[in-house]
Amino acid sequence: MNDNGEKMVLAGKVDLPFSYSAGKTASRFFVELRDHQKIVGKRCPRCQRIIVPAQLFCKECFVETDEWIEVGPEGTLLTFTVVYHKENHHPREAPLAYGIIRLDGADTSIVHLLGETDVAKLEHGMRVRALFSKERKGHIMDINCFRPV
Amino acid sequence: MDPQVAIIGTSQTKFEADKGYEDIPETVFKVVQQAMAEAGIDRDDLDTIVTSSVDLWDGRTASNQMLADVVGSIMKPESRVAGDGLGAAFQGMMAILAGASEITLVVSQCRGSMGDHYEISNWVFDPIYQQPLGLDYLSAGALQANLYMKQFGISQEDCARVVIKNRRDAQNNPYAQEVEETTVEEVMNSPMLAYPIKEMDASPVSDGACAVVLASRDKAKTLSKEPVWILGAGSCVDSHYLGDRDLAGGDALIKASNAAYSMAGISDPLKELDVAEVSAAFSYQELLWTELMGFCDRGKGARILKEGQTSLGGSLPVNPSGGMIAGNPVTVAGLTRLVEAVLQVRGKAGNRQVRGASRALSHGTTGCCGQGQYVMIVGN
Q1: What does the pLDDT average to over A52-70?
Q2: Looking at CA atoms only, how far is residue B325 from chain A in angstroms?
Q3: What is the mean pLDDT of residues B65-93?
Q4: Residues B337/B277, Cβ–Cβ less than 8 Å
Q5: Do A89 and B130 touch (CB under 8 A)?
Q6: Cα of A136 to nearest chain B Cα, Å
Q7: Considering CB atoms only, which of B132, B150, B242 is closest to A100?
Q8: Each residue of A23-46: b (16+ CB within 10 Å) or e?
């Protein structure tokens, strides 16, 4: 039998709801964002590094972090990109910009959106400041973006 | 110690933008049959099977379940790596080293064409701190590229030269996806996707599969006239959260490659290796990975490429197959690098053959920006 005929391609879609527990550490981080517009990290009792966004434990020392410390809201932009193509999973219209930011007082960095999408106006090492969202829900998007100071 | 595990059969499909003319088991059936035929074994000889696939790429969960029949696993122990195929080869190697298996079949398959390439990669990120930002392999790669290029003074033209080399070499690889030769100007003028990554700096969306048959020392000597030995292997994983990593530093790859070199007795990879097949989904990654694997000093990846040291005919050709710039069926990439490394040391790499190659490095990554790193060195 000849199989040079039509080949069927069937459409499908994965569309499944989930609910993710943020955990006690990220929950506190989100509550501080939502209720106080504060960015908080946790200190490692062994190496004293302040880890932001807050995490349960220090990955270097492998011990639980203990003390809550407020950091930022200003920091230094370590690297950035501006994305020009459109994707369904983007939270905003393209172009949109991302950065990795070392907040003042922190020893690790936070990845987030940037308010400036003109690549010519972004620089490694520039100072940026968190802009909090007007409507805050206890979510990473309670920080709207980081804007050049 | 003498090497204990050999590769006695390999097979790969041609990489294509869309293999919709056949289903996944039909693709996998061919590579499994070919690799077993090359090894001179049948299904009864298989002790264990390791597959590599990722559910979201396959549009179903427990995606290895649909593969059980076609990889010959029925009534046999099978395990799966939900990540890069070179990681599956590691599991296969360990099953043999542990004495649990004498012959292990390793199979990797992926179809970029089935879903949305970058949207699926958004699901790699943790749903609490990163996924809601809309990050994906492209934007995360661009953050890494921009940091690495700034720190080491690498230009976009330097990255474009990776594309030119790999697209040129892909013309010699019958398994590569159709990509045309190009120029620095063309790459520089291709649309900016995510600064500083342009369309031609990125690997294409691809479908493909490959298979490798591993054997214990005794079995390899009985079954194969030309076993290719695993001389060294190392793997290492970095943290997931992008802000916790030194994206231009890459200690994970330094550790993985050093472990492989130490096992293989290699102290100067540029001189002692004959060819390297490197998993670089974007052009900048080939420069970054070659530096981290010690082919040159940090920041000199672009220079050794410009000097021709990593081109065919140079001291250590990198990706004579064209690499991932000539086809990126995501999780298949690392196992393809191993297949190419084996073909090289067997002298069977056709027009992309590195003359007299006897020691070859293969490299695979998993996760974004090289979070997981695998290095395997083979030789005859």
Answers
A1: 96
A2: 20
A3: 94
A4: yes
A5: no
A6: 14
A7: B242
A8: eebbeebbebbbeeebbbbbbbee
**Does A69 have pLDDT greater than 80?**
yes
* Distance from C-alpha of A65 to C-alpha of A44, rounded to nearest angstrom: 4
The ipTM assigned to this model is 0.96
The answer to whether the Cα torsion of B152, B155, B159, B165 is positive or negative is negative
Cβ–Cβ contact A56 with B under 8 A: no
Domain residue spans in chain A? 23-148
Q: Which candidate, B331, B211, B27, B209, places its Cα nearest to that of A7?
A: B27
Does A96 contact B244 at a Cβ distance shorter than 8 Å?
no
Task: Supply the CATH classification number for the domain B5-115+205-223.
Answer: 3.40.47.10
CB contact under 8 A, A119 and B127: no
For A11, which residue in chain B has the nearest alpha carbon? B114
Residues in contact with B324: Cβ distance below 8 Å, sequence separation at least 6, in sequence order: B203, B279, B280, B281, B333
Instruction: Say whether A112 and B21 touch across the interface (CB within 8 A).
Output: no
A90: nearest CB among B134, B142, B193: B134
Of A12, A53, A100, the CB nearest to B129: A53
Closest to A53 measured CA to CA, from A135, A133, A141:
A141
**String of b and e for B342-379 (b: at least 16 CB within 10 Å)?**
bbbbbeebeebbbeebebbbbbbbbbbbbbbbbbbbbb
Which of B205, B25, B208 has its CA nearest to residue B115?
B205
CA distance A83 to chain B (A): 4
Mean pLDDT score across all residues of chain B: 96
What is the rounded CA–CA span in Å between residue B347 and residue B380? 10
Give the global pTM: 0.96
How far is Cα B321 from Cα B348, in angstroms, rounded to an integer? 12
Q: What is the mean pLDDT of residues A29-54?
A: 97
Please say whether the beta carbons of B209 and B13 come within 8 A.
Answer: yes
Tokens of B322: 């064209």
Q: Alpha-carbon distance B291 to B299, whole Å?
A: 7
B88-92, B175-179, B270-274 — which is least confidently predicted?
B175-179
User: How confident is the model over B282-322, as pLDDT tens digits?
Assistant: 999 999 999 999 999 999 999 999 999 999 999 999 999 99
Q: Which residue of B has its CA nearest to A53?
A: B129
Q: How confident is the model at residue A7, as a pLDDT?
A: 84
- Give the integer Cα–Cα distance in Å for A39 and A69: 9
Q: Is B194 helix (H, G, I), strand (E, B) or coil?
A: strand
Distance from CA of B332 to the nearest CA of A (A): 22
The C-alpha atoms of residue B79 and residue B68 are separated, in whole angstroms, by 10
